[in-house]
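User: I'm preparing a small set of examples for a lab meeting where we compare how different chains pack in three dimensions. I only have the primary sequence for this one, and I'd like the structure in C-alpha cell form so I can line it up with the others. Please keep the answer compact; I'll paste it straight into my notes.
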Amino acid sequence: MNKQTIIMLAIAAVLVTALLLFENPFKEAERKPHPDEQVELFVVPDEADCARIELRGMGTSTTLVRKDHQWFTKEGYRADGDRVQQILNILKEAGPPDLVSISPDAFINFKVDQIQGISVRIYDRQNARKVDLIVGEMERDFFHTPVRKPESNNVYLIRGMLRMVLQQSDWRDRNIFRIDLASVRRVAVHRADESYALARESEGAPWHLVRPTSVPLSAEKVQPWLQQICMLYAQDLEPPATTDTLTSYGLTASSTYLSLGLDDGTTKTLIFGTANARKEYYVKRADDPQVFRLAEFYFTNLLKKSDELKAPAAPPLPPAPPAPAVRPTTGPAHAATAPTTPTVVEKTPPSKAKAAVKDTPAPSPAKVDTPTTPTGSDAAAKTANQNPKPKSAKK
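Assistant: Understood. Below is the C-alpha cell output for the 395-residue chain.
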C-alpha cells in the first residue's frame, strides 16, 4: 500500500467521523404526525389542582402560587385570579393542535425561539409539570397562537389568544371591589362633615335616603356612582399592611369609610386613610390587609355629599293664564254699547273767529220758482187755506 492510498483512506475516515458526529444519519427524525392523529401537547389540570404557574420571557419572570383558594405573586401580593383563569380556559379550549413546521429555522418566524417566545409551565399539587410550552406571537387571524414544546422542533397552532394574556407584566390584583350592582341593597357613607345612608327594597326599586331623613334620590345620579364603587380599580398597591404601616397610612383610627350591604346579608367596607405627596389616598378593605392607592379624583367622587345624589327640585308651576272675556249673548237686551269718544270742542279765539267770518264767501241765492196764476176753484181753495175763519171766543 503506497503512501497516497494511506492518505486517501485517512481523509475518508475523517469525513465519515465528522458525518457521524454532526449529522447522525442513524438518529430517527422527528416524525410529522398524520393529520388524523391526535397529538397531546399538554394536560391542563383544574384550577383547584393547580399549585404553581411559572412565566418566563420578554425580559420578565413571574411565579404565581395558589394558597387558600387564591393566587399570589412570589412577593406576597394577591394575584389577578381572573387572568389566571383565562390561561387555564384558553388551554382547555385550544382544541387539537395543527402542525405547521418541523424546522428549527421557523422558530424566529413564529417567535417560539428562546429569546422571543414566552415560556409557561403549570404544576399540580404533586409538583408534576402538566404544561410546558413556548408560546409565540398570535397569528394575523387573531384566533390562533403558535406553540412548541421546549425539546421539540415541531411548531403547532392552537386556538385562542394565549400570548395576549401571558405578555402582561403586572400580575398583581388591583381590583378593590368586584361586586354585582344588582345585589346591593344599602350604602352607608361616613365623612368628617356628614354621615348618611341610602337603601332600596329590591333590584330595580328606587333608591331613597334613609338617614338622617327620608328623601327620594335621583336614579341618574345614584346608578353611575354605585357602578363605579362596585367595579373599583386602584392606581397602585402598597405591600401588605402591618400594624405600623396602617397607622402611618391613617387607616387605624379612620372615621371615613363607605359600606355596601348586599342581598345575602354580607357587608363590604372600604376604609379611607390619608394622602401622600402625590395626593393619592391610601385605602383598604376591612376584610383584607392589602393597601391600595386611589387618585384624589376617585376619593372625592366616591365620598359624595348626600345633596349630590338627591333628585332635583321640581320647577315652580307657571302662573295661571287670565280667564278669557265672556262674550255677551246677542239680542237687543244684551246689545253691546260701543264706547263713545267725547268730542273735544276747540275754542276759537275772537280774532280768528272774525277772520273766519270775513273770509267765508256769501251763500248764493236760492233758485225761486215762479208760481203760475191759479184759476177757478183752485184759486178759491188756496185763498181759503191762506185765510182761515177766526175761532169764536168763549163767553
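A couple of notes for your slides: DSSP finds nine helices and 17 strands in the chain. Residues 3 and 185 are 103 Å apart (CA to CA).

User: Perfect, thanks.
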